[in-house]
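Schema walk-through. Below, the input block comes first and the output block second. Nothing else is stored per chain. Lengths vary across the set, and this one has 364 residues.
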Amino acid sequence: MGRVGPRPEGGLSLEIRLETQQGVGTGQGRSRAGGNLAQRPEPCTPHTPLPMDRTVVLITGCSSGIGLHLALRLASDPSRSFKVYATLRDLRAQGPLWEAARARGCPPGFLETLQLDVRDADSVAAARARVTEGRVDVLVCNAGRGLLGPLEVHTAGAVGSVLDVNVAGTVRTLQAFLPDMKRRRSGRILVTGSMGGLMGLPFNAVYCASKFAIEGLCESLAVLLPPFGVHVSLIECGPVRTAFLEKQEGVPGGALDGADAETRVLFSRYQRHLERIFREAAQDPEEVTEVFLAALRAPRPALRYFSTESFLPLAHLRLADPSGCSYVAAMHRAVFADEPAEEETASDRGGPVLCAPPAAAAPQ
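--- output ---
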């Protein structure tokens, strides 16, 4: 079994020992209005008591993608170290999780589902109260939402929804679970980051704004929390093969009619670029979950872990030229220069005009 606990020198240790006792947690959720929600299928055998000293992990955003795969990976870990609470905004979406758990042979008693909507502080508090162990050793803030398209076509509702889930939702979740970790002087917080939090991506302005905010939030906490035995890590992900793109808020369709013709052309070119990137460089969720596991098990966890190094040269370029001009030029070329003939036509029209780094001051 595993436990996160304080080390004498102020770091954290994660002990992983084999556990042979098995059981499964069952139950059905109820909506906040009191109505019955779909009862999850039984993947394994009836419940038997389990030891209390396993590492208790709570993960937000487990209906699909990284959250679902991470919950399965930890709940079925051969060490039998983890008790996983996989949370979903809507428990009616838990079917695929339990189907995958059954197919994977997830042992009974190592996985529970809870309703948790990061947009609702009461929902977060209710989920915390349902953790039968009375503690969460590892909190994984994974719930997130995207928003793709020209900034000027986004509705206020779509913008507000993305910021509410990605930023305010993460804050609500941390506010609910962090105080107990500080009191116990023990805990890990893993947050799903993104290359969109390390560099600006065209047609992702609001999403990048939310992920940049998460970088500042987590870095600030990482400086503060080590004396409490609590450590924060960002798992910086590149493109991952999940349903994230399909679930984005306000996916542009007819709304593109509100953008000018040249922006629509650039957006079409960006979509082709995005399709190529996902086709050639996207990672499988299982590969990304191993990075989460490495961060979780690290005796002295780092602030940032990268699921891929493919975008690090561009991230380094942002630091190498503080003016930002080198990055802007490089990213513009990478995304929009796939079709030279059109690029030349744009130049003939007097654009694009990209900045140049300011010249160094002459020595006095």
